[in-house]
């Protein structure tokens, strides 16, 4: 699974002003209305995921938390496993970080 930065095609040390430009460009690229009707569902899902990336990286405190947790786990190869009270796997953060990050954001 790729990081949010890889999804955007940028380096993690991109400054906020440059990131804002990239996010605007990607918003237009991913917006469902910019694609044929038969592909609307696919692009709607991609756009919803992109919105999560945007919300995380635009807010400096969320970006800092993302960087500290997600990228450190990626670099070290460690995986954080989240389980529910019944012992069922909810998700993994690290190699499979994308879905886990979205779950962590939803718990705030």
From TrEMBL:
Domain of life, per lineage: Eukaryota
Coiled-coil intervals: none
Domain J residues, every copy: 3-70
Molecular function per GO: heat shock protein binding
Cellular-component GO terms for this entry: cytoplasm; nucleus
PROSITE patterns named among the record's database cross-references: DNAJ_2 (PS50076)
Name of the molecule in the record: DNAJA1 protein
Organism: Symbiodinium pilosum
Gene: DNAJA1
